[in-house]
């Protein structure tokens, strides 16, 4: 298994691939792959999915993926890390990207308007790369890239809401969105606060949430916080005391107790282990 890192906040590549040059690799950054031409397969965490022109695929940190390219294919590849995401100033969207993206398979674009918009944006970026004007027009290209990342994130959130709508009410979507938005404020995501906000009794909230999503609201909150904390430890240099402040823990001891309860190791041990794997 090849471990690959990104040493810039964002990189953009146009690739014409005759055959798959990649071994199965593990990446420490996000990647958006837009298919310009060609057909083949993307293998993501042992799940095989087809790709075709107009598809937009997202690979997230720690995904194991490779491409099976049976015939020449053109790709636009955008690589970016959390530091770049932080510059977008949309933390709730970043959290949604981290939380939901690992469960995605295949093309994330479902809306025809989004497909056309992404096609036009990618065509403009490829044109800049091919014409050698990328560096000269970099500020303009960065606007295109930000738009592409925004559409990607929005599509992920929309897809999740569609899945929820198939099996649940609008209210459960609003509860989940509320939790994600306020995940850094423990006082705002207590069961009694959520139940009061959405007009439910505390006991019924737990039953209702589990009935609609398959897990209790306390477990959903725990898993979401844990996933975000793991991401901070693996993909940033943020100090433990900063994580304490960000997620509203009383002190480092309380944070370590929470983390060790579910991961079996302290935050420092977890980060050291991940650094050795990199």
From TrEMBL:
Tell me a Gene Ontology molecular-function term this record carries: DNA-binding transcription factor activity
SMART domains for the chain: HTH_ARAC (SM00342)
Keyword DNA-binding, does the record have it?
yes
**What does the record list as coiled-coil region(s)?**
none
UniProt KW Acetylation keyword:
no
What keywords does the record list, in alphabetical order? DNA-binding, Transcription, Transcription regulation
Instruction: State the superkingdom.
Output: Bacteria
Q: Which InterPro entries match?
A: Homeodomain-like_sf, HTH-like, HTH_AraC, RmlC-like_jellyroll
Entry protein name: AraC-type DNA-binding protein
- What organism does this protein naturally occur in? Chryseobacterium vrystaatense
